[in-house]
Amino acid sequence: MKLEIMPKQRTLEAEQREEAMEMSGLELWKHEKPPKIFPMTPLSAAGCDEAALVPPLNFAMVDDGIYRSGFPATANFPFLKSLNLRSIVYLCPEPYPEANTEFLEQHGIKLHQFGIEGRKEPFVEIPDDKIREALKVVLDVRNQPLLIHCKRGKHRTGVVVGCLRKLQKWCLSSVFDEYQRFAAAKVRSTDLRFMELFDVSNLKHLTASHC
C-alpha cells in the first residue's frame, strides 16, 4: 500500500531537495577537518513522524559537540533529541516559536539568542559584539553539545562559524570556501569582509580545547 505524505511533509522534503541541489554544484574545499554534512532521511521512508530522524536544512557538524543548521522544524525534533543538546545558539531577532520553546523546555536545552538582522546587501551591518558573545557561548564546553542556527543556516550562521574557524587558525581561503559551501549562489561580500577583518586576539584564550 502506498504511503500518503501530508502536504506539510511534501513542503519540507521539497525545501530539503532545493537546498541539496543548490549546494551540489560546488566543489568540496580542501582542508584537514571539513564539517560533516548529514544525509536527510525522507519521512515517507520512515513510516511515521515519530520514527523519522530528519536533520534541519543545512545541518552539519562543525566540531566535536558543535553543530550548525537552518531553523529546525517540528519534524526535526526527534533528530535534535538524538544529539543530546545542552544549548541552542539562535542568531535571529524574532521570538522563538512556541513549539520550539516547548521542545527545549522538555529536554532541558538552554536557548541563547543573539538577534542579528538578516537584511540583504547593501544594507547589512553585522554586529561585532553579538558575534563575539555568541562565540563565547559556543566555545564554553559547559554549553555543549550545541546547535548554532539562523533562518536558513547560510549567512548569520556562516559568519559565526567562519569567525570560529579563524580562532581555530584556519587559513582565510578555507574559511571562505566553507562559507560558500553553505551560502551557494547567495554569497555576501559583506560577510566575507567581516570574517576577513574579524580580530580574534581577545578570544584566543577560549580555544585551547578546539585548536
UniProtKB/TrEMBL annotation:
GO terms for molecular function: diphosphoinositol-polyphosphate diphosphatase activity; phosphatase activity. Keywords: Hydrolase. Its EC number is 3.6.1.52. It comes from the Eukaryota. CDD domains: PFA-DSP_Siw14. Residues 58-211 form the Tyrosine-protein phosphatase domain. It catalyses: 5-diphospho-1D-myo-inositol 1,2,3,4,6-pentakisphosphate + H2O = 1D-myo-inositol hexakisphosphate + phosphate + H(+); 1,5-bis(diphospho)-1D-myo-inositol 2,3,4,6-tetrakisphosphate + H2O = 1-diphospho-1D-myo-inositol 2,3,4,5,6-pentakisphosphate + phosphate + 2 H(+); 6-diphospho-1D-myo-inositol pentakisphosphate + H2O = 1D-myo-inositol hexakisphosphate + phosphate + H(+); 3,5-bis(diphospho)-1D-myo-inositol 1,2,4,6-tetrakisphosphate + H2O = 3-diphospho-1D-myo-inositol 1,2,4,5,6-pentakisphosphate + phosphate + 2 H(+). InterPro entries: PFA-DSPs (IPR020428), Prot-tyrosine_phosphatase-like (IPR029021), Siw14-like (IPR004861), Tyr_Pase_AS (IPR016130), TYR_PHOSPHATASE_DUAL_dom (IPR020422). One of its GO terms (cellular component) is cytoplasm. Belongs to the protein-tyrosine phosphatase family. Atypical dual-specificity phosphatase Siw14-like subfamily. This is diphosphoinositol-polyphosphate diphosphatase. The gene is LOC100828674.
